Each structure stands twice: as C-alpha cells, then as structure tokens.
Amino acid sequence: MSNEQKQPEPKAGNGNGNGRPSPLRFLLPMLVVGGALVYGWQWWQHQQLYVSTDNAQINTNVLPVSTQLSGQVLEVLVGENEVVEEGQLLVRLDPAPFEIRLQQAEAQLHVARQQSDAAQAMVGVSAAQAGAMDSSADGAQQQASASISGAQATLEQATAARDAAQARIRELQAALDQAQTHLGRLDSLFAANIVSRQELDDATAARDTAQARVDAAHDELQSAEGRIAQAQAGIEQATALQASSDGGRKSAVAAQRQVGYNQAQYETALATVEVHEAAVAQARLDLSHCEIHAVRSGRVGRRNVEPGQQVSPGQNLLAIVPDEIWIEANFKETQLGRLHPQQAAEIEVDALPGVTLSGVVDSFSPASGATFSLIPPENATGNFTKVVQRIPVRIRLDDALIDEGLREMLAPGMSVVVHVRAG
Question: For an engineered disulfide with 394, which of 116, 187, 231, 362 has Cβ 3.0 to 4.6 Å away?
C-alpha cells in the first residue's frame, strides 16, 4: 500500500463543493425557457400585426437604348455606371451616308416640284386652248345655223316669187294671145275699111302692152330663179360651214379630253412631290437618329458599344437604369386576404443591415408570377400538384424619407424583407 494518504472525492451533484446544488443549474434553463417564451410572444405578436415575406427585391424599369439605323459608331460619350440626364447625348453615329441620302432626296424633290409646276402650266395652256376652240366651234355653229336659216328663208321667198311669176306669165300670156288675136281681126277689118285706123292702133298698142307685161313677168321669173339658185348655194355653203363647225366641235371635245389628261398628269406630279417630300422627311429623321439621346435620367449600365463598331437597327447599345425604384414583393396567395392598398410597409435591405425603409402598398398584380412565366403551368394535364402561388405586390417607397446617399446605395435587384402592417 502507498504511504500517501488518499483525499476524499467530491460527491456527484455538489455544485459548490459543500454538497449543495449550484443555482445556475436551475437558473439557466429558466432563462432559456423565458427567452423562448418572450421570443415566441413577440413572434406571435408580429405575426398578428404584420404580413411578411423575404421573397422580395428592389425593382425598376430598365430602359434599353438601341439604334434605329445601320451604321458605324463615331463616338460613345458616356461610360459604364455614369449618371446621365434626360436628353443627354449618348452615342453618335457617322452622319455622312445619311447626309448624302438627304441631299439626294432634296434634289429629287426639287425635280419633282419643277415637273409639277410644268404640268400645272400645261393644264392652264390646254384649258385656254380648249376654251378658245370651244368658243370658236360655238360661234361657227351659230353662224352656220343663222346662214342656213337665212338661206332657207330666201329660198322660200324666191320659190314663192318664182311660182307667182310663172302664174303671172301664164295669165299675161293668155292676155297677150287675146290681144294678138284681136289685133289680127282688126287688121283684116282695117284692110276691108271696116274699122278705123285708130281702132287698129289701139289694138296694136294693147298687144304691145301685153307683150311688155309678159316680158316683164319673164324677167321676174328669171330673177326669182336666180334668187333660188343663190339661196341653194347659200344653204350648201352654210351646210359646209356647219360640217366644219362639227369638226371644230370634235376638236374642242378632244382638247377638253387633253385638259383632263393634263390634269391627271398634274395630280400624278403632285403625288410624286408628296412621295419625295416624305422621302426628304425620312432622310432628315434618319439623320437626326445619328445622335442617340437619353430618354430618361438615370445611370448607364450594360454598355455594349464602342467607337468604330458597326451597328444594326434594333441592336441594344446600352441600358439606362432610372432613379425611380419600387419594391416588388411576392406574397403567398394565402397572405393576400390581409393586404390592401395604402397599407404601411417596412422594408429591410439585406445589403444594408440595420436600415429600415418606409413604404406603402401600391397595387397588386392581376395574375400570379407563374401565369406570366415562359411556360405557365397546365393543371388540366393530369399531373396536378397543388403549390401555393406567389402574387407580386408593388410597394411604393417613401422617397421623402430616403436621403441621397442612401438612395445611391439602393440598386435594382437587391433582396429585401418586407413587413406590411395589417393590424
């Protein structure tokens, strides 16, 4: 056996070495249980007062800046992450090809306008010619009609005079024959000394008078026949004039048709002018598009353009992230019953511990996020699995409570935790 004296070992459960239990043995579990109860109570109170989700992020409208032309980049006047103002020049394309196109379009417009002016002048000239020909044809027709009417009247008068002369000749011829017969009887009686010389002379004078009357009637007949021939010639001449006026009328009608043709050419020239005016406007618009300006104020991001680069229409050159931001919180559909617009919200930004932002519920999405996905779910296919859907809720930040320095630290895409006060 060892000569050393053995020391007595302490009894199990003796906390202070005197055989009595330590107070920490009972205090620590009580603190843990109490803390858990307090945390649980606070958590329960928070759940009663707030609707929360960590499926949320800062969002904004990213504005892609593209070109509408195909050309070479001459200058890029902004850098990555640079702040730009609305209307600021961002990119300039080489304007030389578009200036040439504008000059060509303006030259073509000048030629088209000259052609239009010439066509308009031709319309005026042809209209004046057609009017003169129409007036001339009307005058010739009126003159021919008057000549025909006058000649026909003269012919009727001359025909009546001829008929009267012929009737008078027959009457006077009968009287002449009677006077000649009476003179022959008196001449025989005078030879037999039955009648006197005076009676014979009277019969001779009566015969001569009848003969003179017959001769005068023949002269009237010849004069009437001459007037008839003259009237017929006048009718023929007037008829020829009328035929000529008909030809003039046809020429006037053809001239009127020429006026219509010239008018159509003028209208075509006007339409051509409008086409070239549109081409000039398009060329000027293309030239103005050589300078690409910022449509909104914000910061430049995702710059994909460099000087000397060849770009094509619709190609994205860079993006502008505006200063306007909001929170897009995706709440469960089971939480929506406690939410409505204008509710106050508290936002905790993961990147900024200890910072709490204020906001207001602005609006609700008209459909779930799955509905707007590239391949929306088809629950009618037979493979249905019920999943709680998320509904995007837009929360508007209270910009008045966000200072400039903090605002610059808030970037779209940052994760946040949203608490909406529902109580």
Answer: 362
Per-residue pLDDT tens digits for 365-401: 998 888 888 777 777 777 777 888 899 999 999 877 7
For the chain, what is the largest distance between any 2 Cα atoms, rounded to a whole number of angstroms? 246
Report pTM: 0.59
Chain segment 117-147, per-residue pLDDT in tens: 988 888 787 777 766 666 666 666 666 677 7
Q: Give the whole-angstrom CA distance, residue 72 versus residue 101.
A: 16
Token output for 214? 């017959």
C-beta of residue 394 within 8 angstroms of C-beta of residue 328:
yes
- All structural domains of the chain, each given as residue ranges with its CATH number in brackets, are 50-61+322-421 (2.40.30.170), 98-288 (1.10.287.950)
**DSSP codes, 164-233:** HHHHHHHHHHHHHHHHHHHHHHHHHHHHTT-S-HHHHHHHHHHHHHHHHHHHHHHHHHHHHHHHHHHHHH
Tell me which of 53 and 167 has the higher pLDDT: 53
Can you read off the two tokens belonging to residue 72?
Answer: 């070479």
